[in-house]
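B., you asked whether I could sanity-check this one before it goes into the benchmark set. Here's the sequence:
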Amino acid sequence: MKSSRLVLVGALLISVLQIGFLSWNIAGRAAVLRNGQEVLLKVQPVDPRDLLRGDYVRLGYDISTVPASLFTPPPTGDGDYEAKPVWLLLRKQDDGYFGVKSAAFDKALLPAVEAGEVVVSGMASGTPAASGSASVDYGLERFYLPEGEGKPIEVDMRVRPFAVVAAVAADGSAQIKRFLDGDTVLFEEPLY
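And here's what the prediction gave me:
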């Protein structure tokens, strides 16, 4: 009798922990979407399908390739970065899109944030000193779509501009909030 109660209590405890962990992840993502600073990013087309996960648009951005000259301090030597944390100061440009103003591997080395600017975090890879630029992954590179909608969007992305509105949290993490075809909102992420 005592053994079965222990098993039941243990199962309930594990269930509560699992539900709590999932709820914490969902609430964190919703907080970024609800409270994060919005930035408009110009999209570059990439292949949109994954046979195991369904349709998605794989996105590249103008801010995905960062010239070595924008880093403080500039990269030296032949150091190859593989998933190295990086901080970027994005500035709103005249066309409304955000572009990279400065980049650093230490957030404290970025210039002070002014109006129309936001700091976003990413993971750098490549050999910036040798190639002249670093590739940066922001965690915004996939956007899942309803089945059958990936291929038409892939074709359309090659003939007209698409964009993403991303919400950036105070810690620099970002989430896709809206996917745009020009000024038309194609998809908007729900909070929950």
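One thing to flag: The chain has one domain: 36-188. Otherwise nothing jumped out at me.
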